[in-house]
Every structure is written in structure tokens, then in C-alpha cells.
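quick q for whoever's on today - can somebody do inverse folding on this one?? i tried earlier but teh output was garbage lol. C-alpha cells:
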């Protein structure tokens, strides 16, 4: 176990940003912290790295409590905050060298590590470009490279893929997989539910609490309702009709479709079709669907409300 958290709790005045969070992370594991804006992701990550002191509970990195020995813990970890500040006037290469100096990377190691990070990040062609002139995706990849220069055993990354184009997003994940394969543990937050599936384990966070922590497959497997997608002529009307049907647990729009979660044994597809027909809410199709993390999140959020 490289990271352990017990009962981590933090409030800002009335706002209970993080409430009683327990976590463990093993070497090589990628744990995703997935939740919407304001869920408490950044606050939790700050508590894990010791940038913030908890009101209660503790975090320990490699057995070192971050509150007791912050320097010792920090040697083992690399932290990339949500708003990561590189030196805008320094080039890609200069930024990396600066961080190498700051972390006392031995000169014999330095060029080897730089080469490797340039290769991973595909920033090699841009080494002479000032960081302030990089695209959003390149900037994040450089920030990640700077976080990796001292070969930490634990990476704590706060929304590394937010605002990043799909290609750079995939490249960022590939870098994470490569380091995970070498035994580096990674805790990565994201507001994108679809990124949950990329992690070994996922914690869904809502209002400062972890709703569930498990493998993506196990979390998807826990979804008890039957899920249907309705293409209705008038989505609003269909939603009003279905929401009033006993046995319909949830009904919410997803783009042009209406998602309908029906309690097991309540009548499934027939229940949905009949309700729409009886109340004259025309539809083009009703189809069974597999739940995704968005659906899971909504169902859990409800049961924890
Ligand atoms: N320093 C602070 N002072 C006061 N309130 C804060 C502070 N930091 C966070 N909060 C509040 O705590 C709650 C959790 O915020 P946090 O930044 O941890 O969420 P988040 O999941 O990281 O959100 P986002 O996806 O927008 O980054 C929010 O209600 C936020 O407004
Ligand atoms: Mg945040």
C-alpha cells in the first residue's frame, strides 16, 4: 500500500468539502476520482498531498503521515494541481530542467529522463517553444512531465485531461499507463464520467463523500435497474408521463434520447411503451440500454441524498 487515507474531513465554513474519506492505493494502481464540479475532488487531493490540513483523519504516503512529516511524504509523490503553473517565458526544455534542479535529479540521470519524457509526451519537436505558447494539451503534458521528473512512487493528478483535445487526452492516458506498469501508483481526478472506465478502480465522489470505490466493471455490475432509451416526439411530455409511472425510478434526458430506469420486475419495456401509448405521448423507439457511469452516478447520488 503506497497511499492510505482514514476519515479525511475538511470544511470551509459551512461547506463540508470532504467528509470522512477512507482510501487505499496499491503500487501500480490507477485510482480515478470521478465527480462533478464542486464535488470535493481538489480538496481531497490537497489533503492527500498535505497542501491542506484536515479537520479530522489523516493521509499517509508509503507509511509516512503527511501531517507529521510533509517533507518525507513529498519526496515520494508528484502532485499536479488543477491550475498548474509552468514558467510561461521558459521553454519546454528549460521548464523541465528547472524542475529537475528543484528536485535534485542527479546529473547522470537527467538527460535520460528528459529524453524519455520528451518521447512519451511527444514534446520533442517543441522543446524550444516557450511554455506560454503551448496548446492546452501540450501544456498539460509538459506539466505532467515536470511532475514525473523526480520519479515519484505516487502521482496525484488534479484534472490532467480537462480542456484537452481527444488526441492529447489519449496520449496523457498512455503516459499514465506506462508509469503504472512500472509500479507508480496514480490518483487522478476527472469530471468526465467516461474516463472512469480507464482506471483500475474508481471512486465516485459527490458532495465530499465517496459514493462507491470499486473496479469499473463491478460498479457497472451493481446497477440494479433496467435501463431504456426512448426517442420521443416530445421529450418533455414523455418525461412528464414516465416520471409519474410507478416502477419508473428515474427519467432524464441524454441528448435527443430520454433515459428511463425501471425497477427490476416492474414491467420493463412493456411498462414504458404502455405508459407512453396510454397517455398519448408518441415515440419513435424504446430500446434497452447498458448503463454507463453517468447513469450509475445518478442512481447512487439519489440513494445517498
Ligand atoms: N479554499 C476554499 N475556501 C472556501 N470554499 C472552498 C475552498 N476550496 C473549495 N471550496 C468549496 O468546497 C467545495 C469543493 O470544492 P473542490 O474545489 O474540492 O471541488 P472539485 O470537485 O475540485 O470541483 P471542480 O471540478 O470544479 O474543480 C466547493 O463547494 C468549493 O466551493
Ligand atoms: Mg477541482
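ok took a stab at it. sequence:
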Amino acid at each position: 500500500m503506497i497511499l492510505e487515507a482514514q476519515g479525511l474531513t475538511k470544511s470551509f465554513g459551512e461547506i463540508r468539502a470532504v467528509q470522512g474519506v477512507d482510501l487505499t492505493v496499491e503500487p501500480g494502481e490507477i485510482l480515478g476520482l470521478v465527480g462533478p464540479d464542486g464535488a470535493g475532488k481538489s480538496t481531497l487531493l490537497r489533503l492527500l498531498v498535505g497542501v491542506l490540513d484536515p479537520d479530522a483523519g489523516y493521509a499517509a504516503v508509503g507509511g509516512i503521515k503527511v501531517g507529521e512529516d510533509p517533507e518525507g511524504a513529498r519526496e515520494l509523490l508528484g502532485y499536479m494541481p488543477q491550475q498548474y503553473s509552468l514558467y510561461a517565458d521558459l521553454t519546454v526544455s528549460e521548464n523541465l530542467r528547472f524542475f529537475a534542479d528543484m528536485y535534485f535529479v542527479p546529473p547522470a540521470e537527467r538527460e535520460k529522463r528528459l529524453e524519455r519524457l520528451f518521447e512519451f509526451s511527444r514534446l520533442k519537436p517543441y522543446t524550444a517553444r516557450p511554455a506560454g505558447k503551448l496548446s492546452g494539451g501540450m501544456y498539460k503534458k509538459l506539466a505532467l512531465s515536470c511532475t514525473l521528473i523526480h520519479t515519484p512512487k505516487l502521482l496525484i493528478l488534479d484534472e490532467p485531461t480537462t480542456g484537452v483535445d481527444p488526441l492529447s487526452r489519449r496520449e496523457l492516458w498512455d503516459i499514465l499507463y506506462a508509469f503504472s506498469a512500472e509500479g507508480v501508483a496514480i490518483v487522478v481526478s476527472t469530471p468526465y464520467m467516461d474516463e472512469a472506465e480507464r482506471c483500475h478502480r474508481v471512486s465516485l465522489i459527490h458532495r465530499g463523500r465517496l459514493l462507491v470505490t470499486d473496479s469499473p466493471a463491478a460498479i457497472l455490475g451493481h446497477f440494479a435497474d433496467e435501463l431504456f432509451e426512448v426517442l420521443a416526439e416530445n421529450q418533455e411530455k414523455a418525461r412528464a408521463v414516465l416520471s409519474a409511472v410507478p416502477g419508473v425510478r428515474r427519467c432524464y434526458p441524454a441528448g435527443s434520447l430520454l433515459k428511463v430506469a425501471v425497477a427490476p420486475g416492474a414491467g420493463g419495456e412493456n411498462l414504458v411503451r404502455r405508459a407512453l401509448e396510454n397517455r398519448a405521448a408518441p415515440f419513435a423507439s424504446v430500446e434497452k440500454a447498458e448503463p454507463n457511469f453517468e447513469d450509475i452516478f445518478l442512481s447512487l447520488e439519489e440513494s445517498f441524498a
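fwiw The pocket of magnesium ion (ligand 2) is lined by residues 41-42, 82, 158 (CB under 6 Å). also The chain has a mean pLDDT of 95. so keep that in mind when u check it
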